[in-house]
Amino acid sequence: MNDQLNLPPATDSRAVRVAGGHRLEGTTTVQGSKNIALHLYAAAVLADEPLTLAGAPEIPDTLVCTEILNRTGTPTKVVGDRFETTPAAAWYPVIPDQLGGRIRSTAVMAAALLARTGQVSFPLPGGDAFCRRLIDRHLAAMEAAGATLAVTHTHVKARTASRDSAAFTTDAATRQWGPSLGATVTAMLLAARLRGTSSILNPSIEPEVMVTAAVLAAGGVGITWEGTIALHVTGTDRITGGAFQIPPDRLEAATLTLAAAITGGTVQLDNFPTSEFPDGLVAVFADAGIELVPVNGGTLARCPAGPRAVHTATGPHPAFPTDTQPQLTAFLSQAPATSRIEERVYTDRTTHIGPLRALGAAVNADGSVITVRGPAPLTGADVAGKDIRAATAALIAALAAEGTSTIRGMYHLRRGYGGLLPKLTSLGAELTINPEMP
Ligand SMILES: CC(=O)N[C@H]1[C@@H](OP(=O)(O)OP(=O)(O)OC[C@H]2O[C@@H](n3ccc(=O)[nH]c3=O)[C@H](O)[C@@H]2O)O[C@H](CO)[C@@H](O)[C@@H]1O
Ligand SMILES: C=C(OP(=O)(O)O)C(=O)O
User: Fold this and answer.
1) Where is the domain boundary, 245, 273, 304?
2) Is the CB of 323 under 6 A from ligand 1?
3) Would you say the C-alpha torsion 334, 339, 345, 351 has a positive or negative sign?
4) Which of 114, 164, 397, 422 shows its CA 20 to 30 Å from the CA of 376?
5) Cα(204)–Cα(278) distance, integer angstroms
6) Catalytic status, residue 128
7) Best mutation site among 31, 35, 62, 134 for ligand 2, i.e. most ligand atoms within 8 A of its Cβ?
8) In 48-202, which ranges are continuous DSSP H helix?
């Protein structure tokens, strides 16, 4: 532990050793959604009463957010799987570099502090570094909400001249891409305590946005959707608290499905209703030969006739999510034909290609298009995943490889999933964790 910050270090030199070739079979559960949790942790800053979020994923980002809230004034603790806050007596709206630089939702946290105090200072966000991850739409929302910004290449300071800022209109659409998930939540939090009705044009409708909107609405904030055209937010000067459940992680559900499917196995996700899979993912899975069967409020996932090649593209919810593209790429390495995936959200999200090739997959990227020629025999190798889903893709391929693989990138795996490795083991995977790797 790092005493000063009360946090686990941002590196983990352990590695996972995977003896490939074991079919995964069985039942498991899915953690609370990492990405939804991160946005709710920021929204908790706005509550004027105690707030509890059950189902908090046991990942480093939960601890980083706990520390950010405590250091900026909101008393916060994690008790079991509950993230509990009580309202601040005073705020210190400075997000320390060592904390803000470790998570992707720093600008969203900053927006909550700005809404509370009229000022905030924060470092540029961290999170996975698979490509440039811009925050211009977050900054535009802060300016629209009346803040004056001082932006350097490492930090942002924002200050509103008057605590009585007026309702505002902002556009969450990015220049090259569609709506920004993070910037939509940033704008929502900025508007939640303002007098009057603010409008967010081209809002994202990712579950992260919908769930945060629902929690704010339960707290007394007026939320009106105009489809995907606009989200109108009517502020209130008192936001109530309460207890909320973080929905299960659709990205972990997809990961477990693909991990079982590549081994020819079956997994039952007890707490993950089939309806929680985005429509685009269901369609891609169906094309790829993966069946999702509703069972007692959960989902049985299987691939009875083996993988099939697909042509698909990532996109905004409910399309096929970018955070499952690397794992699908690993799976498609075993489909007996050529697959193509166009990555439209993060056009150079290709950090998984190197590790997959090292394991034997015939995969390459040409611009934003990833081509997978299968089936290619996979053999054990020593590879490193440099972000959450790259490490996960390598792990999935290693499960189907002949021989033993070493997957480095434990910090990234732990950042994405609190318990993926024990879950895979319980399903029949042969995994060991090597304490320290050179
Ligand atoms: C913590 C969290 O929830 N992370 C998720 C969130 O990230 P994040 O909040 O970064 O995702 P956004 O929806 O904001 O970003 C999507 C796209 O918009 C661009 N963009 C974003 C903001 C901005 O101000 N300007 C801009 O150009 C990005 O570079 C990217 O190409 O959504 C992504 C897309 O579903 C997921 O991959 C991440 O796992
Ligand atoms: C990219 C991801 O996370 P983050 O935005 O936290 O880096 C992810 O969840 O795949």
Assistant:
1) 245
2) yes
3) positive
4) 422
5) 14
6) yes
7) 35
8) 60-72, 97-100, 106-117, 136-144, 181-192
ipTM over 0.90: yes
Asked if residue 375 is part of any domain, the answer here is: yes
Q: Do 92 and 175 belong together in one domain? A: yes
* Residue 328 to residue 312: CA distance in whole angstroms: 11
pLDDT band, very low/low/confident/very high, at 2 (cuts 50, 70, 90): very low
In this predicted model, what pLDDT tens digit does every residue of 190-237 receive, in sequence order? 999 999 999 999 999 999 999 999 999 999 999 999 999 999 999 999
Atom number of ligand 1 nearest to Cα 36: 3
Residue 280 lies in a domain: yes
Q: Rounded CA gap, 249 and 77, in Å?
A: 22
Q: Which ligand 2 atom is nearest residue 322's CA?
A: 10
Coil vs helix vs strand at 431: strand
Please check whether residues 199 and 314 belong to one and the same domain. no
Catalytic residue chosen out of the listed positions 3, 61, 97, 128: 128
pLDDT digits (tens, 9 = 90+) for 370-423: 999 999 999 999 999 999 999 999 999 999 999 999 999 999 999 999 999 999
Question: Which segments of 146-278 are extended strands (E)?
Answer: 147-151, 155-160, 169-171, 197-201, 222-226, 230-234, 242-245, 266-269
Q: Is 104 in the pocket of ligand 1 (CB under 6 A)?
A: yes
pLDDT, residue 3, reads: 46
Let me know whether 203 and 333 are in one domain: no
What pLDDT was estimated at residue 385?
Answer: 97
Q: What is the band of 9 on the pLDDT scale with cuts at 50, 70, 90?
A: confident
Do 222 and 271 fall within a single domain?
no
Best substitution site from 122, 131, 134, 202 to test ligand 1's pocket, by max atoms within 8 Å of Cβ?
134
- Report the Cα 166 to chain-centroid distance in Å: 32
Query: Cβ(208) to ligand 1 under 6 A?
Result: yes
Ligand 2 center to residue 128 CA distance, Å? 6
Residue 268 domain boundaries: 15-31+248-434
The answer to whether residue 43 scores a pLDDT higher than 60 is yes
Q: Whose CA is nearest to atom 8 of ligand 2?
A: 323
Please tell me the predicted confidence (pLDDT) of residue 60: 96
Contacts of 286 (CB under 8 A, 6+ apart): none
Residue 176 CA: which ligand 1 atom is closest? Answer: 27
Q: What is the pTM of this model?
A: 0.97
Please report which ligand is nearest the Cα atom of 102: 2
Looking at the structure of the chain, the number of domains it has is 2
CA 133 to centroid of ligand 1, rounded, Å: 7
Residue 258 sits in a domain whose CATH number is 3.65.10.10
Identify the domain boundary among 193, 210, 245.
245
As for ligand 2, residues whose beta carbon falls within 6 Å of it are 35, 104, 127-128, 323, 388-389, 416
